[in-house]
Each structure stands twice: as structure tokens, then as C-alpha cells.
Amino acid sequence: MTFAVPEYVSAVTDRLRERGFQAYLVGGCVRDTLRGVTPNDYDVATSALPEETVAAFPDPRVIGTGMRHGTVTVLSGGRPIEVTTFRVDGPYRDHRRPDAVAFTPSLEEDLARRDFTVNAMAWGKEGLVDPFGGQEALARRVIACVGEPARRFDEDGLRILRAVRFAATLDFTVDPATAADVHNSTSLLDPVSAERKWAELTKWLCGPAAARVLAEYRDLIEHMIPELRGRALDRRLLASLPPRKELRLAALFSSLPAEEAGAILARFKCDGATRKRVLAALSHKDAPLGTEGERLRLVHAVGWPAAGDVAALQGNAEAAAFLRRAEKDGAPVALADLAVTGDDLAALGAPGGRRMGVLLDTLLLRVIDGQTKNERSALLAAAREMIEQWRS
Ligand code: ATP
Ligand code: MG
């Protein structure tokens, strides 16, 4: 079996082995390499205790942030690699136990605590270590719990959501026994923190099979987000959108009033930038985008990124392409883009205060609608006319 490991990663496992410790690549990087996909990041599991890992990598190449849970971040070739001591979860273990976790000298015990068989493989000196049939599950494209699903979900309710998000991101199915317990155990998600759930949900939505999995696990999504009960879900729209979380969230919430979507985003502690963008798209989702003026007016109201989102949500590829071009060309959509300033208008004798604001806005909208060119002389002429009208 060929298994490509980048040099900066093997540098870390080699160093640990030179010091007499066991060191393996584990989890997602093994799964993805076997699938022929470049891993997002590399995790190492080792028999070395955290302080022994720190000692193996002299400063400043080590960040000991997760030490209590056995994790040390090693910078190798400028890239972070998480090195975690072999660990078991559970109160019954008789191992060295700092705070909440217990360390173990056994790789197999470390693999046994992992969630799914495809995530419970390791790659070491001797090749692939696969005690739970991860390779076979990869070949069958199946997500199955390591051990008994009900018990594993009971230990950590987040695994319910993780099973489904991996099905969506890998385009796998969930093994029948695991799937049955996903459906039976949705309430185990309740005590899990909003942040952990949100991270998995957004990964789910951005997966290539997000729409299929949403249809299969409607009960799970509705348990997490009761506002979606009885609401239509546009699977085709969701599947057609690029895999960006703002867009996919807007699609998920497109049947809800924007205020309700806002409350959900707040409840899950969604970051402010994403929240703003999703809500901007949702509150303008039916904006007319037929003419160039209508499209630029939308940009004027919500900015370039959210306007692009609205075009995507409407499935209006022509408008989306126009907006991309217009942004590149620097089409005027804000007061700062106008070829005149408030001072220019004041020099013409325009009134100050609120009326000045109205005058500038009107000029901008005339430019956006193509009635006036964004040129100084044309704008000053238009302004003069309006000032005259006000005076008369
Ligand atoms: P991705 O590429 O999407 O990050 P990943 O497999 O690396 O996928 P992570 O969430 O980064 O997923 O977790 C890394 C590894 O840690 C997993 O592959 C799994 O072995 C283990 N793991 C993570 N979360 C849990 C959990 N809640 N219960 C059991 N094992 C877990
Ligand atoms: Mg990962």
C-alpha cells in the first residue's frame, strides 16, 4: 500500500520515534489519504506524555495549549501538527489520569475511543493499523460507530451529529445500526454546547451530499432547529449552491422570516460576520434583479458579497455574473464612488444637513439607474437642477 506523508509531517513522527516513543498518524488524515484526498491537517498520536513531546521539540516550535487533554501543537515547516498522547475516555480506566482524560500506552485503546471506524485507523512504521474495519467501511462508503452506537452516543451526544455530517461531507451512507440510533437518540444532542453543534452543522451543510442527508435526517435537523418543522426545504436549491456556509445557511432558512432566522443564528452563537451576511441575503431574497439598475440598487443596499448571495439564492446566474463583472469594473454603488462630493454641491449653493444627504443619495441612485453618468460635469448639472427645483 502506498501512503504519501508530507516531509514536514514525517519529521515529527521520526523525531518522536528517535526518542523511543511510538508515533502514528491518526484520524481524518489517514481516512483522507486512503481515499486519495489531500487531508486538511495531520494529527499524530503518540505514547509520549505531553511534557515528553514538548521536550522532544525545543522552543519555539511547540505550543502547549491543550496539554491538559494531552495535546501539544508542534510547528513543523511553519505548519501546526497536533500531537496527542494515546488517550482513553471513561471513568473506569486505571491509567495515569490528569484532570478529565486518562493516558494509556496502548494505540488500540486510543483508536477504540474514536467515533467512527473510518476515523479509527492509524498509520505507523508497520503500515496501517485498522482494528475496527475502517478500510472496509471506506470501500463500502459507510459511517459506522466504533462499538455499540447507543453507548457511544450516550458518552458524547455530538457523535450523532458527526455521523450525519461525515455522511454529507464524504457522500457516504450511515450504517443501518448507527442510523437507527441516530434517529432514536436525537435528544442526546440537547446538552451539547451550541458552538460544537454549530461547527458540525455548517460542515454538514457545505458537504457535497448535504441535501440528500438533510432529507434523510429531517428529524435530526428539526430536533435541533424546531422552527424548521413543517417548513419547505428546497433540496435542489441547496445542492446547486457553491459550498459556502453563508449561502447554504441562507438556503436552509429561506422558508423562514428573517427575524426567526436571526434568532436561530444567535442561539447557536454564529459569528457576527456570517450572521450579518445570511440575514442580509434573506431579507432581500426576493429583490428584483432583472435590470442592471435593480442589481446595483441591491448592492447599494447590502454590499457586493450579500448581493451576490441573493443572485445565487435566486438561481440567477446571469445576474451573478453581471455583479462579479461590475464589482471588478468598480461600478459606483456608494456615495464614496460618486465623482462629486458634498463640498462640490455646497459650492453650488446646496443646503446642508439632511437635504444634502438626500441630494447625494438621489444623485447616486440616478447613476445606479443609468440616468446620469458618473462624471463631474453631468452630476453638477443634475444637482443644479434639483437645487433650482427646491428653491422654486
Ligand atoms: P475533518 O477533516 O473534517 O476535520 P476529522 O476526522 O479530522 O475530519 P476532527 O473533528 O478534526 O475530524 O477530529 C479528528 C479525529 O478525532 C477524528 O477523526 C476522530 O478520530 C476523533 N474525534 C473527534 N471528535 C470525536 C468525538 N466527539 N468522539 C470520538 N472521537 C472523536
Ligand atoms: Mg480534523
Entry summary:
This protein is α+β, with helices and mostly antiparallel strands. It is built from 21 helices and eleven strands.
Topology summary:
Elements: H1 7-18, E1 23-26, H2 28-35, E2 43-46, H3 50-56, E3 62-66, E4 71-76, E5 79-85, E6 87-88, E7 102-103, H4 107-112, E8 122-124, E9 127-129, H5 134-140, E10 142-143, H6 149-155, H7 158-170, E11 173-174, H8 176-184, H9 194-206, H10 210-216, H11 218-224, H12 235-240, H13 245-252, H14 258-267, H15 272-283, H16 292-302, H17 304-313, H18 317-328, H19 342-347, H20 353-368, H21 376-391
Helix pairs in contact: 7-8, 7-9, 7-10, 9-13, 13-15, 14-15, 15-17, 16-17, 17-18
The structure holds adenosine-5'-triphosphate and magnesium ion (MG).
How does this structure look, described?
There is one protein chain. By secondary structure, this protein is of the alpha+beta class. Among the domains are: 140 residues, 2-Layer Sandwich (Beta Polymerase, domain 2), CATH 3.30.460; 38 residues; 57 residues, Serum Albumin, Chain A, Domain 1, CATH 1.10.246. It is 52% helix and 10% strand. It has 21 helices and eleven strands. A seven-stranded mixed beta sheet has the order 3-4-5-2-1-8-9. A two-stranded antiparallel ribbon has the order 6-7. A two-stranded parallel sheet has the order 10-11. A hairpin with a 4-residue loop joins strand 3 and strand 4. Helix 9 packs across helix 13. The protein is elongated, with a radius of gyration of 28 Å. The model has no long low-confidence stretch (mean pLDDT 94). The protein binds adenosine-5'-triphosphate and magnesium ion (MG). Magnesium ion (MG) binds next to loops. Adenosine-5'-triphosphate binds next to helix 7.
